[in-house]
Design brief:
Layout lengths: L2 H22 L18 H14 L5 H11 L2 H11 L10 H12 L5 H8 L10 H12 L5 E3 L8 E3 L1 H12 L3 H9 L6 H21 L7 H33 L4 E2 L57 H10 L1 E2 L2 H10 L13 H4 L10 E6 L2 E7 L7 E3 H7 L12 E2 L5 E2 L3 E9 L2 E10 L6 E2 L1 H7 L3 H11 L10 H7 L15 E2 L19 H16 L3 E4 L6 E7 L5 E5 L19 H6 L6 E6 L8 E2 L1 H6 L2 E3 L2 E5 L9 H12 L6 E4 L2 E6 L2 H17 L10 E4 L2 E3 L2 E3 L5
Parallel strand pairs: 6-12, 7-11, 13-18, 15-19
Antiparallel strand pairs: 1-2, 3-4, 5-6, 5-10, 8-9, 10-11, 14-20, 15-16, 17-22, 17-23, 19-20, 21-22, 24-25
Helix pairs in contact: 3-5, 7-8
Length: 727
């Protein structure tokens, strides 16, 4: 064998060995990159880290990069993009750059420059945030702000960045330590941001070091042990002295009432905790900062209680001290509750104390209600000695039919919840009670407020609360037939508890369009095949009940939205935001505040909660409103004959009409479709519930029995657990 043949043999052996190595050595596997989380980072930052990962794994081919991105992005984002592209453009066939562009469009929408600038100018240094972290948060929001200026020269028109100017100004403005900010402003040589940052960091470090040096040196273990012994011995003396004083105080409280004042301690210092000012800014009254860090201008804070400038009435120490001195308690039980109230177990502002536990009152704690005549028209008022003037709501005043024009007034009222009530006006009426008459002013306030009879009328008419009590006790002797069994109630009002849609008689809701608007039709949206049968069954039910009517053509159309329910059914909603709501004139009927509704439950021990079945659909709309509410579905177009969920004026209209339907019922409150009936005892609660059910039956309103509760001493209502005088 010559050398040539030997070389050929070696070459053949080498190629065979390479082929075997390629077959036996597996291809390197690339682990997918982490999934994208929109809550923790921007998509642009995610793509930068993704590209670094591809460079680290030597993945340069666009096909491989596209495969890696599809497997790494996460199932939710992958499925959303697949649904967005549709079957005509499969996601697995898209190249890397196009795939990246689609994800950017879906996950990184463009941000308004004005909004970004607003957020940037609102950033301040947080209490536990260092200057470095503060600068990082500023620069993170800066790149979206587009702080650029254009050269005013006609021939130039170039843009140059002015971001450093805004960064420098917002940095100094947002510093939590005013001493550092003042030190920087006093420096005349600091013009660029880097110099300001270096100066601020140095000041922060020196301030921290000086604070550490000012601390007292640590004591030895023997000294600490001796100090603890002394402290415990003194604390034991304080406890024994405090317990003996408490026993003496309790013995004295059994013989005569004592005055308690916890607003000042033994050294005469103000106890801010007892005044409810612990952790509150003593200038603006907010809880997110201390008084020394308050940025509210002093001139804008004026106390309406003492008339001084620099604080508001909520934190007026003079007024709070004066009120605390007038509080007296008359029994040992009252003393113990007063001590508990100032201990570490403070009650929150959502707790309402039982007045019987704090003060000695008569057996009847209900409201004092009197009936007077206004220009020979009877009207009931709640006697309120805490109010100076008398007032009545506008709907109640209109029902009297006095035909008296309103006079303008500059007087405003403030409720117990610090809510300002501005009257619509006032009238002068002739008031008569028990053969006493007088001409007096009556203030007309917006709907949702009870009629109150104030001190001026109390004195002028000679009203006596004792006489009102005697009169009320006489009324209680009237024999009233009540239903005492739940089964009797369900049997008597069986029609109301049928879960079907009724129709309130003689009521039609009108939807008012803005001037010059044109109709708009939006085609139906796709319904998943798994839900179509249930959707069609629900549409058929609504059609049989007269809620919807099929039509052939319409200028209006809003798409149907299907929401699966936990019980296997579906809830049909309509997206009126895409065309109808912006064309409607808003309805400004006032919605009652939740705290006002809860306050009206005071004094009751038993509660019944009623839930209206598909509440809005009980209200008929006129022909024009039916056209406006037309819905587009996969089964065709339907005209909506009832007030639909999703119409922006529906909540206000429903509250207005329901308030009129339930008007005059004692101890019956309503907040949207949640109605509550209550009473101080079972008999009163049953009587009020029966009256409410009668009113619902008269107006063909139906209830969802599964969501109703009856005769509960503790009930969940409007997100609060309510019991006797406690929330």
């Amino acid at each position: 064998m010559d050398s040539k043949q030997l070389k050929e043999l070696l070459s053949a052996l080498t190629s065979v060995i390479k082929q075997q190595n390629q077959q036996t050595t597996p291809a390197p596997q690339i682990i997918p990159f982490e999934a994208y989380d929109a809550k923790t980072e921007k998509f642009s930052s995610y793509m930068e880290r993704f590209n670094n990962y591809c460079d680290l794994k030597n993945v340069s081919d666009d096909i491989k990069k596209a495969q890696l991105l599809r497997s790494s992005i996460g199932k939710d984002h992958y499925n959303n993009l697949a649904a967005f592209l549709g079957p005509d453009d499969p996601i697995k066939e898209i190249d890397f750059e196009t795939l990246k562009a689609h994800f950017e469009k879906m996950l990184s929408p463009s941000v308004s420059t004005v909004v970004s600038q607003h957020y940037f100018l609102s950033i301040t240094q947080q209490p536990h945030q260092s200057i470095s972290d503060f600068v990082a948060s500023l620069k993170g929001k800066l790149k979206d702000c587009d702080f650029y200026a254009t050269c005013p020269t006609t021939s130039c028109k170039k843009k140059f960045s002015i971001a450093d100017i805004f960064l420098r100004a917002q940095f100094i403005r947002g510093l939590k330590d005013s001493w550092i900010g003042e030190a920087i402003l006093q420096e005349t040589n600091l013009k660029d941001f880097d110099g300001i940052l270096t100066k601020a960091t140095a000041l922060e470090a020196s301030r921290f070091e000086s604070g550490q040096l000012s601390k007292s040196p640590e004591k030895t273990s023997d000294q600490a042990a001796d100090t603890n012994k002394i402290y415990r011995r003194q604390e034991g003396k304080r406890r024994s002295r405090r317990s003996s004083e408490s026993q003496d105080n309790r013995r004295q409280s059994n013989s005569h009432p004592r005055h308690f004042s916890h607003s000042r301690n033994s050294r005469g210092r103000i106890n801010y905790r007892s005044l409810g000012l612990d952790g509150i800014c003593l200038k603006c009254g907010r809880t997110n900062h201390k008084s020394r860090d308050c940025r509210t201008m002093r001139e804008s804070l004026k106390c309406i209680s003492c008339g001084k400038i620099g604080h508001i009435s909520k934190v007026c120490i003079t007024t709070l001290l004066r009120k605390s001195k007038t509080n007296t308690l008359s029994s040992q039980r009252s003393q113990e509750q007063e001590e508990d109230r100032h201990s570490n177990n403070d009650y929150g502002i959502t707790r309402i104390e039982d007045t019987e536990d704090l003060y000695e009152v008569g057996p009847d704690t209900d409201k004092y209600i009197v009936t007077v005549t206004l220009n020979n028209k009877p009207q009931s008022f709640e006697v309120d000695s805490g109010a100076r003037f008398s007032l009545i709501s506008e709907p109640d005043f209109n029902q009297l039919g006095l035909s008296i024009p309103l006079q303008p007034t500059s007087i405003s009222f403030r409720s117990y919840s610090d809510h300002v009530i501005k009257p619509k006006g006032k009238v002068t009426v002739s008031v008569t009670y028990n053969r006493k008459s007088m001409d007096a002013d009556l203030f007309i306030v917006p709907a949702g407020h009870d009629a109150l009879l104030g001190r001026m009328w109390i004195r002028g008419l000679g009203i006596s609360l004792k006489e009102i009590d005697n009169h009320e006790s006489g009324l209680r002797t009237v024999n009233v037939k009540v239903v005492t069994s739940l089964e009797d109630i369900f049997k008597k009002y069986e029609q109301i508890f049928e879960e079907r849609i009724g129709c309130v008689p003689n009521v039609e809701v009108h939807l008012q369009l803005r001037e010059g608007v044109t109709p708009i039709f939006n085609r139906e949206r796709d319904v998943p095949f798994a839900l179509r049968e249930r959707v069609e069954r629900e549409l058929s039910t609504l059609e049989k009940q007269g809620v919807i009517t099929p039509i052939i053509s319409s200028d209006w159309g809003s798409p149907l939205v299907v929401i699966p329910k936990p019980d296997g059914g579906v809830r049909l909603c309509v997206d009126y935001k895409c065309g109808v709501n912006s064309r409607l004139v808003a309805s400004n009927y006032p919605i009652r505040r939740i705290d006002e509704v809860l306050h009206s439950l005071r004094g009751s021990k038993y509660f019944c909660k009623l839930d209206l079945y598909k509440a809005y659909l009980h209200l008929r709309v006129d022909e024009e409103g039916s056209k406006i509410q037309t819905i587009s579905t996969h089964k065709g177009t339907f005209r909506m004959n009832r007030l639909s969920f999703g119409i922006k004026t529906a909540p206000a209209e429903f509250n207005r009409i329901l308030g009129q339907l339930l008007n005059g019922l004692p101890k019956v409150e309503a907040y949207f479709d949640d109605i509550i009936c209550h009473g101080s005892d079972l008999e009163e609660c049953t009587r009020n519930l029966t009256a409410c059910l009668e009113r619902l039956r008269e107006n063909d309103l139906h209830l969802n029995r599964a969501k109703c509760s009856f005769f509960k001493e503790s009930i969940s209502y409007l997100g609060h657990v309510v019991s006797h005088n406690q929330i």
